[in-house]
C-alpha cells in the first residue's frame, strides 16, 4: 500500500537528541556478503514487485564495484529497503517519495500552497536572518545564480548569501565549493550547516521554478562535468528541481555523486506520493530545527566538532574486524585515525571492516584499510591511520559514524528512544 507510514514517524519524527546520526538501514550481515556478486533488490512500499539493481544497468564508466555501491546506498533511501537476494525484510515500512506527478496542474497547485504556507510560517525568521546579514556582512543579502531547471531551462536560484562573492566566483568557477575553503561570511558557515541559507528557495517554489521535492538544482558547468562521467545523469532534468529531496536529506554532502544520481534517477521514474512528500517535508523541517539548536549550543559552549563528537560517541560498540577474522575493539576515532586494542601485533597495511552497532541492534559495516601506525602504547593499544576502501564505505562512515546527514536513522527518533527506555525500565 502506497501511503503506509509507521505510526512512530508521526509521534516521534523529531530527533531525540541534537546530533545527526544514522538513517534508513540496510540488512547486510557481513562485509564479505557485501562483496558477493548478488543481484541486489529493493521492495518499494508502493508495489509488491521487486526491481533488480544490477551492475549491467551501468555503462562501462562505472566498475562493477562502483555499480554495486550505488545500488546499495540508493536502494536503502528511495522509500525502499535493500538487501542481498533472500535477505530479511525490515520490520518497519518505508514511506514512498517520487518526482513524477499524475497531474501537473494539481501538483503545481499543491507545491504553491505548501510553499506559501511555509513561507508565511518562517517569515519572522526570514526577516531576522535578513537583518543579521545586513549588520554582519552588508549588501548583497541574497545570492542569485543560474541553475538548470526542467527540460534544461535556466532559472535563478535564491539563497541567503553565505560566501565571499569574489572569492567564491574564483574558487567555484568550474567545481563545487571544496570542504574547508574558509570563504564564508561571518554567519555563512552557520547558515550553510543548518541549511537555513536555503529558506529563500521557497520563493523559487512559489514562482514555479522548483518543486518542494526533487533533485537539487545544479549549475550548468557542474552538470556538464557530471553528465560526462555519470551514466544517465541528465534524467534529473526531466523534472523540476526540488528544495529538498531524499538525496539531500538522507545522504551526506560528501556522498558520491554517482550514488546520489542513482537515487535521483529512480525517483524521477517514480510517481509522486503526496503523503510521503508531506511526511518528508515535516521530518526535514524538524531535523533542521534540531540542527540549528545544536549549532547554537556548539557556538555558545565551544564544543568539539559535531562530526568528531558523533564518531567518538560510537566507539563503545565499534570494532575493527580484519580480513583474517581477528576482531579488535576501537577505543577512539576521528576522520582519518583510530585507536585499536591489541595493536602491538598489527601489521599494516591491513584490510578489514569497521563494524558499528546501532541503538536498535542493527549493524553497519564499512570496508577500510589501515595504512600507517602513528603511535603505540605500553598497554597494547595503537593509533593508526585508516581510509575507506570504496564509495559505499565512505558513504556508510559519513552517515552512520560521523552522522553528517540531515535526517537521522529512525532508531534516533524520540519515539524509539522512549521505547528503549521503557523496555529497560520494565526489564529492571
UniProtKB/TrEMBL annotation:
GO biological process terms held by the UniProt record: polysaccharide biosynthetic process
Pfam families: Bac_transf
Entry-linked InterPro entries: Bact_transf
UniProt KW Magnesium keyword: no
Annotated ranges, domain Bacterial sugar transferase: 108-282
UniProt-recorded Gene Ontology molecular function terms: phosphotransferase activity, for other substituted phosphate groups
Transmembrane portions of the chain: 109-135
Keywords, sorted A to Z: Exopolysaccharide synthesis, Membrane, Transmembrane, Transmembrane helix
Keyword Transferase: no
Assigned protein family: Belongs to the bacterial sugar transferase family.
Protein name as it appears in the record: Bacterial sugar transferase domain-containing protein
The organism of origin for this protein: Alloyangia pacifica
Amino acid at each position: 500500500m502506497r501511503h503506509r507510514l509507521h505510526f512512530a514517524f508521526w509521534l516521534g519524527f523529531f530527533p531525540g537528541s541534537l546530533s545527526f546520526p544514522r538513517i534508513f538501514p540496510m540488512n547486510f550481515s557481513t562485509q564479505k556478503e557485501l562483496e558477493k556478486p548478488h543481484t541486489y533488490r529493493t521492495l518499494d512500499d508502493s508495489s509488491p514487485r521487486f526491481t533488480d539493481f544490477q551492475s549491467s544497468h551501468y555503462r562501462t564508466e562505472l566498475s562493477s564495484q562502483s555499480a554495486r555501491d550505488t545500488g546499495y546506498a540508493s536502494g536503502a533511501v528511495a522509500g525502499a529497503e535493500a538487501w542481498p537476494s533472500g535477505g530479511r525484510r525490515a520490520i518497519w515500512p518505508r514511506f514512498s517519495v517520487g518526482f513524477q506527478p499524475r497531474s501537473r496542474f494539481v501538483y503545481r497547485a499543491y507545491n504553491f500552497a505548501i510553499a506559501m504556507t511555509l513561507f508565511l510560517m518562517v517569515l519572522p525568521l526570514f526577516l531576522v536572518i535578513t537583518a543579521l546579514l545586513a549588520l554582519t556582512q552588508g549588501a548583497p543579502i541574497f545570492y542569485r545564480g543560474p541553475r538548470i531547471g526542467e527540460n534544461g531551462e535556466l532559472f535563478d536560484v535564491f539563497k541567503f548569501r553565505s560566501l565571499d562573492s569574489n572569492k567564491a566566483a574564483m574558487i567555484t568557477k568550474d567545481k563545487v565549493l571544496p570542504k574547508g575553503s574558509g570563504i564564508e561570511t561571518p554567519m555563512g558557515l552557520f547558515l550553510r550547516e543548518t541549511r537555513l541559507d536555503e529558506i529563500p528557495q521557497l520563493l523559487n517554489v512559489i514562482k514555479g521554478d522548483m518543486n518542494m521535492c526533487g533533485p537539487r538544482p545544479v549549475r550548468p558547468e557542474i552538470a556538464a562535468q557530471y553528465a560526462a562521467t555519470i551514466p544517465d545523469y541528465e534524467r534529473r532534468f526531466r523534472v523540476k528541481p526540488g528544495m529538498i529531496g531524499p538525496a539531500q536529506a538522507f545522504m551526506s554532502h560528501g556522498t558520491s555523486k554517482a550514488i546520489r544520481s542513482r537515487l535521483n534517477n529512480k525517483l524521477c521514474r517514480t510517481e509522486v506520493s503526496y503523503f510521503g512528500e508531506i511526511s518528508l517535508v515535516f521530518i526535514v523541517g524538524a531535523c533542521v530545527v534540531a540542527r540549528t539548536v545544536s549549532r547554537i549550543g556548539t557556538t555558545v559552549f565551544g564544543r568539539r566538532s559535531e562530526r568528531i563528537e558523533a564518531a567518538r560517541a560510537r566507539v563503545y560498540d565499534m570494532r575493527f574486524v580484519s580480513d583474517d577474522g581477528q576482531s579488535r575493539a576501537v577505543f577512539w576515532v576521528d576522520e582519518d585515525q583510530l585507536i585499536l586494542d591489541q595493536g602491538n601485533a598489527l601489521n599494516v597495511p591491513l584490510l578489514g571492516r569497521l563494524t558499528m552497532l546501532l541503538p536498535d541492534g542493527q549493524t553497519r559495516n564499512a570496508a577500510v584499510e589501515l595504512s600507517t601506525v602513528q603511535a603505540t602504547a605500553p598497554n597494547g593499544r595503537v593509533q593508526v591511520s585508516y581510509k575507506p576502501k570504496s564509495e559505499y564505505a565512505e558513504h556508510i562512515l559519513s552517515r552512520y559514524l560521523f552522522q553528517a546527514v540531515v535526517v537521522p536513522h529512525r532508531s534516533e527518533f524520540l519515539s524509539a528512544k522512549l521505547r528503549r527506555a521503557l523496555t529497560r525500565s520494565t526489564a529492571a
